[in-house]
């Protein structure tokens, strides 16, 4: 029986489940397997008992200095070569080593950069933001005319005019973008993201600062439904345009309905507009090939218009309780970072 969606064949139950796992992954379903000759359970093959697998995992977990080899990191080819030396007489393939490492529950050889928060009031500052995302403020539900807007600046967006025209794709050759470019200036993009409505409002300025940020605030206040709002919660980071207690008083003086809420230091990931910035970076600004700053400005405005045609709020799932659980797990590191 053919499966047109995946170009695979569905095999009888006794064959499809024989090895316990299918080598096409979970998406294709438990019975769909590819027509390759690769045995799905090769990592658990009797040829390589648990002790052999443990040795390969140990090699993958070794610090580079312990390998006594001039490497900055071990590649799969390096691990295959070392595995064959460690297990003489056994022909272990590249795919088998990869599968052993891929199926490991914990992978210490993988890493990513992480910055632990240094703000000792992290929970105190982050909690109200997460409450706003959940629809409450100071323990009470938000009203129908309360709006939450995430605001920030995406700085130094360059217009890079390529020195030569790009080469279109051809058979066996991808599209090619000239690496050399001329700098045609840079601008700053200031934006406000409506957390519940999924609407974006933005503007481009020559530089950031209190005045350009104030123009964005004016832009928000002049539009419906914010013009007749009961309260306007503005979530911002600690940038110089809206930093500290002075910015809170300045916004309150501009309009008493504004409640400025700051993220903790080094926690701009709590600001939802950063998600929108990452989207426009991928979808509207890459590859960067703009002859003028006006071309950048037009591109950003058109993408705003496109986004607002079918507004969709982000599915934010990190709650105050998730934060408390995370802080509890990370408390030794968090306390050390706070004391630094």
Question: What is shown here, in short?
Answer:
With 340 residues, this protein is of the alpha+beta class.
Could you describe the 3D structure shown?
With 340 residues, this protein is of the alpha+beta class. It is globular. It contains twelve helices and ten strands. It has helices spanning 13-16, 50-61, 64-67, 76-86, 94-102, 122-134, 210-221, 244-254, 273-283, 293-309, 320-329, 331-339; strands spanning 2-3, 8-10, 32-33, 136-137, 140-141, 146-162, 181-194, 200-205, 231-236, 258-262. The strands form three sheets. It has a five-stranded mixed sheet. The chain has three domains: 1-40, no CATH class; 46-111, no CATH class; 122-333, Ribonuclease H-like superfamily/Ribonuclease H (Nucleotidyltransferase, domain 5, 2-Layer Sandwich), CATH 3.30.420.10.
Fill in the keyword field for this structure.
10 strands; alpha+beta; five-stranded mixed sheet; Nucleotidyltransferase, domain 5; single chain; three-stranded antiparallel sheet
């Amino acid at each position: 029986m053919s499966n047109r969606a995946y170009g695979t064949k569905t095999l009888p139950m006794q064959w499809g489940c024989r090895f316990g796992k299918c080598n096409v992954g979970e998406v294709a379903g438990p019975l769909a397997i590819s027509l390759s000759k690769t045995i799905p359970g090769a990592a658990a093959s009797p040829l390589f008992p648990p002790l052999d697998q443990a040795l390969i995992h140990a090699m993958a977990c070794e610090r580079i200095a312990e390998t006594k080899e001039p490497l900055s990191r071990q590649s799969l080819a390096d691990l295959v070569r070392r595995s064959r030396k460690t297990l003489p007489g056994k022909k272990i393939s590249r795919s088998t080593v990869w599968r052993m490492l891929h199926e490991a529950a914990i992978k210490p050889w993988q890493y990513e950069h992480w910055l632990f928060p240094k703000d000792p009031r992290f929970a105190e500052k982050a909690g109200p933001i997460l409450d706003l995302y959940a629809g409450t403020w100071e323990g009470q539900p938000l009203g129908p005319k309360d709006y939450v807007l995430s605001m920030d600046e995406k700085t130094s967006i360059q217009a890079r005019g390529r020195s030569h025209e790009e080469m279109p794709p051809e058979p066996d050759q991808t599209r090619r973008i000239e690496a050399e470019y001329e700098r045609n200036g840079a601008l700053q993009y200031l934006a406000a993201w409506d957390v519940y409505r999924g609407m974006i409002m933005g503007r481009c300025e020559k530089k950031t600062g209190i005045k350009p940020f104030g123009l964005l605030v004016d832009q928000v206040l002049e539009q419906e439904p914010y013009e007749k709002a009961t309260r306007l919660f503005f979530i911002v980071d600690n940038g110089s345009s809206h930093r500290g207690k002075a910015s809170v008083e300045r916004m309150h003086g501009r309009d008493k309905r504004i409640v400025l809420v700051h993220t903790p230091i080094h926690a701009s990931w709590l600001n939802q507009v950063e998600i929108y910035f990452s989207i426009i970076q991928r979808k509207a600004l890459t590859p960067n090939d703009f002859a003028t700053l006006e071309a950048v400005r037009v591109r950003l405005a058109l993408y705003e218009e496109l986004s607002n045609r079918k507004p969709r709020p982000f599915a934010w799932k990190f709650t105050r309780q998730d934060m408390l659980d995370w802080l509890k797990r990370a408390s030794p590191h968090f306390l050390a970072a706070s004391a630094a």
